[in-house]
Write a structure and sequence with these properties.
It comes from Streptomyces litchfieldiae. By secondary structure, the chain is α/β, with parallel strands linked by helices. It has helices spanning 28-39, 50-53, 108-122, 152-158, 171-182, 203-217, 226-242, 245-260, 268-283; strands at 14-20, 43-47, 62-66, 69-73, 78-84, 94-102, 126-135, 145-149, 161-162, 186-194. It has an eight-stranded mixed beta sheet with strand order 2-5-6-1-7-10-8-9, with helices on both faces. The two termini are 34 Å apart.
Length: 327
């Protein structure tokens, strides 16, 4: 039983998770959640026991000095809460539960069940997992972000892609399937990172994930220095590519392939979405066309949700290699 006596009742909570490792190309996903923690001053309320899930020879602890006292930081996964909007303000009140950590080394089913135990206890209405993968995409074009789910009803309601991926998976895919088994609506946002500049950081991919999260939740996210960092990153990669004729030619071929396709980023709908994001950040208003939070039970009531106990007998995904949303 998970006890969260120190955490206040949450309003329409959504869990947003990202994990360093195989599903985090360029550290784009984990950096996006870290940005949310910083901008919204997330308060950590729980951490998973590192002994249960991590091989310390793979993910080593760090020793540091705190006023002359030596301390140890263990690799783990932490949960924090951020509160958005207000009861009487222009933005409807919404709380986020942020999950940020490292892909576990072992006991993935137990790991996911523990995360879902927190979700049930806090009354989380939906889980959004952020991931990043390497792809044949040019750094000069908008970062493609794919929104997928294993929930047929959710795919229809939110106009998402239903996952058909089969193959090796990471913790993002396993958590997506665990949510499906537990009856928790879940969406995974995948950003494609150029494979020829895979090293972190990649602020442009992080920014693209946050834009997609804005569209999904209908909230304005303070972006801070991310837009400027994204432009600086692209200029830096431009300069590196210009110094190598083979890389420059390869980037050109990727650009031509992207430009000949029908890109959602170039459509009128995408331009309208970008303008809506601007208005949300400027005025704090919800997007036109209704409340995107309509997938929530009792949407827009402003009432807190009672915490729920995990369903009896929920064992999460049966096999780590089951079909998931990694690609």
């Amino acid at each position: 039983m998970i006890e969260l006596d120190g955490v206040p009742e949450l309003v329409d909570p959504v869990m947003v998770a990202a994990f360093e490792g195989w599903n985090d190309a360029g550290d784009a996903a984990s950096a996006a959640v870290a940005h949310l923690e910083r901008e919204w001053k997330g308060e950590v309320f729980a951490a998973l026991d590192a002994e249960d899930y991590y091989d310390f020879q793979v993910n080593r602890p760090h020793i540091w000095l705190d006023g002359g006292v030596r301390r140890i930081t263990w690799p783990t996964t932490r949960l924090s809460v951020v509160r958005i909007g207000s009861e009487n303000g222009p933005v409807r009140r919404r709380d986020l539960v942020l999950v940020r950590g490292i892909e576990p080394s072992m006991r993935w089913r137990s790991f996911c069940n523990e995360i879902l135990g927190f979700a049930h206890e806090l009354g989380v209405e939906m889980v959004v997992v952020l991931g990043a993968l390497l792809g044949d995409t040019p750094h000069t074009r908008p970062v493609p972000v794919t929104s997928v789910t294993s929930d047929e009803d959710l795919a229809r309601k939110l106009d998402l892609e239903e996952s058909r991926y089969e193959g090796p998976t990471g913790i993002v895919g396993i958590l997506q399937e665990a949510c499906s088994h537990a009856g928790v609506p879940a969406v995974t946002l995948w950003a494609a990172v150029p494979h020829y500049v895979a090293q972190p950081p990649n602020p442009k991919a992080s920014l693209a994930l946050l834009h997609s999260l804005e569209d999904l939740l209908g909230v304005g996210i303070p972006l801070g220095d991310l837009p400027e960092d994204s432009r600086a990153w692209q200029i830096g990669v431009d300069q590196l590519a210009a110094e190598d004729s083979e890389v420059a030619e390869y980037v050109k071929s990727l650009e031509e392939a992207r430009d000949t396709a029908e890109l959602p980023e170039a459509s009128g709908e995408a331009i309208a979405k970008e303008f809506e994001r601007y208005l949300r950040r400027r005025d704090g208003q919800p997007p036109a066309g209704g409340d995107p939070g309509s997938y929530l039970r009792d949407p827009g009531s402003g009432r807190t949700r009672p915490r729920r106990r995990p369903p009896e007998g929920d064992q999460g995904p049966q096999e780590p290699g089951s079909a998931d949303s990694d690609d």
